[in-house]
Amino acid sequence: QLKLEDYKDRLKKGEALNQDQLEAVEKYDEVVHNLEFAKELQKTFSGLSQDLLKAQKKAQRRESLLKLEAEKKKLRTILQVQYVLQNFSQEHVQKDFKGGVNGAIYLPSKELDYLIRFAKLTCPERNENL
């Protein structure tokens, strides 16, 4: 652009320019327009790039939160199952299931024993002093 401006100034001063220089001066406005268009295009691409980066970061945060929530849900389910299984170690609960009373379904002694053993395998003993 500076070279074209120099040619334009030289032409105004009355200097003789060769054919290539004259053609370049004739296209000065077109070159300036194309440069301005290129600058605007670069700004647009830069803005789009920033928007894309923001969207990617937002999606990553959302994905991380979803994974965390899924892990929390799994842990809640495990804790709920452990709580239910731990109750099978209490004698009054066992009596309720053996008799099918107090809202408990009837469980044969063999099945109840399986649940009690399963509870001992899957539910660690708690130290109440901690």
Automatic annotation (TrEMBL):
Q: Which residues form a coiled coil?
A: 4-58
Protein's name in the database: CAPR2 protein
Cross-referenced InterPro entries, in alphabetical order?
A: Caprin, Caprin-1_dimer
The protein's organism comes out as: Helopsaltes ochotensis (Middendorff's grasshopper-warbler)
Which terms does the record give in the GO molecular function aspect?
A: signaling receptor binding
GO terms, biological process: positive regulation of canonical Wnt signaling pathway
Question: What lineage is on file?
Answer: Eukaryota, Metazoa, Chordata, Craniata, Vertebrata
The protein's matches in Pfam families, at most eight in alphabetical order, are given as:
Caprin-1_dimer (PF18293)
Alphabetically sorted, this entry's keywords are: Coiled coil
Which intervals hold domain Caprin-1 dimerization? 61-129
Q: Which top-level group of life is the source organism from?
A: Eukaryota
Family named by the database record: Belongs to the caprin family.
Signal peptide (from-to): none
| Record-level GO cellular component terms | cytoplasm
The record, for PANTHER family, names: CAPRIN-2, GPI-ANCHORED PROTEIN P137
Would the keyword Coiled coil be found if you checked this record's keyword annotation? yes
